[in-house]
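If you are new to this repository, start here. Below is one unmodified record pulled from the training split, so you can see the exact layout before writing a loader.
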Amino acid sequence: MVSGLVNEDGKPTRYAGVQLRMDQGWKTYWRNPGDSGVPPSFDWSGSKNVKSIDVFYPLPHRFADANGTAIGYKDDVVFPVKVTPEQADKPVQLALTFDYGLCKDLCIPNSVDLRAVLPADLGKGDARLIEQAIERVPAPAGPDTLPRLGAVTANLEGDEPTLEVEALFAPGATHTDLFVTSSEILVPVPKALGPLTDGRQRFSVVFPTAEEGAAIKGKPLIFTLVSDQGSSETSRTEP
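And here is the target side for that same chain:
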């Protein structure tokens, strides 16, 4: 675990970072791991002098594997962790049980206990490493920013329910993609319905059963748009 003071809206803010370095050919997973794999789990319950802890996920990529499509990271990833203390003039004692999956040919579940102390006078420390990870976290989409979500059409009746999603990207955007997550259910990996054309691209999320399609009704979904020219996230609840 790394730590350092990060300048956030003009205010020094205590941050930690959970870093994974992987050998060539290995990968770990995003919060929605895709068709297989183990999403990371962060248990901070043993920490002291903590008001809140917020874990952020840098933008992921999709990988083909033996079980379909996985979503995650290769080589190296740092999950930025914003730490708000109960008492700002006291040190924060972080205690983390971190469960995660590593995959090459097979997925291997792992669990590790990590400890760190963030003193009240914490210096820059590993701030640059954490800032680089924060720069890769998708920002909330605005009405005029790119990429952003266009129309979302829900066809949730029948034996093969679908969501059809229109995404708007910057002109000339490359490596465009869409991922969808829910805190309550696992959402299938979207499939592109065609290439990027005039800044627009359509994706389809196909649910294997009518029950799984019905399960998203009324649930907030997070749509994560990524490209080499920027990324964003939008939360939307489908009726």
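Two things worth knowing about this chain: The chain is about 5% helix and 50% strand. Residues 127-135 form the longest helix (9 residues).
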